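so ive been stuck on this for like two days lol. basically i have the seq below and the ligand is ZJS, smiles is in there too. i just want the complex predicted, nothing fancy, no docking runs or whatever. if the output looks off dont worry ill sanity check it later, just need somthing to start from for the group meeting slides
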Amino acid sequence: MDNEDEDFYRKLPKVELHAHLNGSVSGQTVEKLIGRKPQLNVEHSMTAIGKGQRRTLDECFQVFKAIHQLVDSEEDILMVAKDVIREFAADGVRYLELRSTPREEKNTGLTKRRYIETVITAIQQCKNEGVDIDVRLLVAIDRRNGTEVAMETVKLAEEFLVSSDGLVLGLDMSGDPKVGHAKDLLPALQRAKNSGLKLSLHLSEVPEQLEESGILLNLPPDRIGHGTFLHPEVGGSQSLVDKVLKNNIPLELCLTSNIKGKTVPCYSKHHFKYWYQLGHPIVICTDDKGVFCTDLSQEYQLAASTFGLSHQAVWKLSEKAIDCIFASETVKKQLKQKWTDVASGIAVTH
Ligand SMILES: CC(C)=CCNc1ncnc2c1ncn2[C@@H]1O[C@H](COP(=O)(O)O)[C@@H](O)[C@H]1O
């Protein structure tokens, strides 16, 4: 990327809708965490997948185990969440929906409720410090943990939906796609939907999920994470695609994550192309910017260089992402105004 190009992508106002908190921890923050817990013997190579490296999904999920060991107290979560928010802001992200799985840690006394409260405190502190970014939270269900935990998580999320002054907006379903079946989580997801929580579901991240995706799309979710294997060209089906189109469900697309996790063979084969050509709502996201050593500016630039998008087309893409956020119409309006204000300062006509 030349300097001028880099400047454009950095200044481009961006919306990030698919960022797992503990996957977004940067190298610098990991350094601080390792300093706090040297006895764990965690090394940098265990928390990130560097340039040119690729791992299987199983290996990728091992990385989260190492990070979770490092982040196990309120103090850690507060630091991690504030660092992640500041880094996204420095990358030009103006609206961020973070997602995170509430964890209980017996040895530090951390509870799931305190976990969520601490992330909310981090969001509020960043706001009070004037960090230029609007941050919201999606409470995540790890599919590994089954029916009961999912229901418990939904109940907790419902409480925060009411009490967090609009900061908690919805629910994410994520975790190793090869573990568990989303059928078991349906009652919890249905309940979440009925109580007004927005749903972003990881769907068809691996090829073997045709049946599961069909069931989940009947809910329907408000957004789809990845959706890598939905379309017929990669073993999905037209009926899955039709469900997505009929309900106009936006897709959160994470290019580098899919390449490094080996679910997509190379950037040019990324399903971005399929959905972009259909004119369907898609949002470029990072997934786990720390683990995959990327940022949102870089992801936009990669999509543009791979698929031949002009600056004007990139601008349109980032602006259209505003329509996919879970916050209110008023917030959307404010963001659109922000985009208009920034447009006059950078070389783009639209
Ligand atoms: C391994 C790989 C290729 C990752 C990219 N795709 C992903 N697919 C499903 N769940 C994920 C992914 N990345 C992160 N997560 C979820 O986010 C968690 C980490 O963030 P947190 O603790 O919820 O704050 C992981 O334990 C996992 O449950």
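The pocket of ZJS is lined by residues 20-23, 57, 60-61, 64, 100-101, 140, 142, 174-175, 202, 205, 257, 261, 287-288 (CB under 6 Å). DSSP finds 14 helices and eight strands in the chain.
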